[in-house]
């Protein structure tokens, strides 16, 4: 799933982004509120990790814009102010969760996982279909009870296929959800990842190619 990290301290922003990538999220980064609004205008994000004190456009205004857009993005607001009134004010703007600085990266990623489960429609803690079981929070995958070691992108693609509940997912949709904004839209990375994923999941094959449409798990 795709996450936008909005933080004006580059070292912190990059650290958060790298940590979430290790959790198999596709992550874009914006260092000010204006850049965040630009990315929100062209990309869909499951979760926006949003610092409240931002230059160019304040984090409060970014949060208001997300809520006004009426999409499915969940907002995890960050701030150095730990007072209760500050947390209440952030939640009143429409943020879904609130995390004061300094914070532990493991807690942040746990909160991001929790917010993805609250997306519409609600996602269950584990995903399963055709003998394949995935736990997104623990980043574990199993085929008929056998643990399957997957790379970050293989895991992210498998999660998206399972979330589709048997519906076809196009290569374009997989690029949008499992890779960040720097990926070449004409790359064959989806096909290559699918070949590796099928090999690791083993026989009988569970991922079906639908010619001209995409992929699905029946």
Description:
The protein has helices spanning 10-22, 33-42, 59-69, 84-92, 105-117, 152-163, 171-178, 189-201, and strands at 2-6, 26-30, 47-51, 74-79, 97-100, 127-129, 132-135, 140-143, 146-147, 207-210, 214-217. 41% of the residues lie in helices and 21% in strands. The protein has 2 domains: 2-117, Rossmann fold (3-Layer(aba) Sandwich), CATH 3.40.50; 127-217, Arc Repressor Mutant, subunit A (Orthogonal Bundle), CATH 1.10.10. It has 218 residues and is of the alpha/beta class. The chain is elongated, with a radius of gyration of 18 Å. The strands form 3 sheets. It has a 5-stranded parallel sheet with strand order 2-1-3-4-5, with helices on both faces. Strands 6-7-8-9 form a 4-stranded antiparallel sheet, with helices on one face. A two-stranded antiparallel ribbon has the order 10-11.
Give a nutshell description of this structure.
Pfam families: Response_reg (PF00072), Trans_reg_C (PF00486). The protein has 218 residues and is an alpha/beta fold.
Number of strands: 11
Oligomer: single chain
Number of domains: 2
Secondary structure tally, helices: 8
| Structure class | alpha/beta
What gross morphology would you assign? elongated
Proportion in β-strands:
15-25%
CATH superfamily of the largest domain: Response regulator
Q: What is the highest CATH level, the class of the largest domain?
A: Alpha Beta
Please summarize the sheet with the most strands.
5 strands, parallel
**Strand and helix order:** EHEHEHEHEHEEEEHHHEE
Q: From the coordinates shown, what is the CATH architecture of the largest domain?
A: 3-Layer(aba) Sandwich
């Amino acid at each position: 799933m795709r996450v936008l990290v909005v933080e004006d301290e580059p070292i912190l922003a990059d650290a958060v982004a790298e940590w979430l990538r290790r959790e198999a999220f596709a992550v874009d980064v914006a260092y000010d509120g204006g850049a965040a609004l630009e990315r929100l205008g062209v990309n869909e994000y499951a979760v926006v990790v949003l610092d409240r004190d931002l230059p160019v456009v304040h984090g409060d205004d970014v949060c208001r814009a997300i809520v006004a857009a009426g999409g499915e993005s969940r907002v995890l607001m960050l701030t150095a102010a730990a007072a209760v009134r500050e947390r209440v004010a952030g939640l009143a703007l429409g943020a879904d969760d609130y995390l004061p600085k300094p914070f532990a990266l493991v807690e942040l990623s746990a909160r991001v996982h929790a917010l993805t489960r609250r997306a519409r429609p609600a996602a269950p803690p584990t995903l399963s279909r055709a003998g394949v079981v995935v736990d997104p929070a623990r980043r574990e995958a199993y085929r008929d009870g056998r643990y399957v070691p997957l790379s970050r992108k293989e895991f992210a693609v498998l999660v998206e296929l399972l979330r589709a509940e048997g519906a076809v997912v196009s290569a374009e949709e997989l690029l949008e959800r499992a890779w960040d904004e720097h990926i070449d839209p004409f790359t064959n990375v989806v096909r290559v990842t699918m070949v590796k994923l099928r090999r690791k999941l083993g026989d009988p094959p569970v991922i079906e190619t639908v010619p001209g449409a995409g992929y699905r798990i029946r």
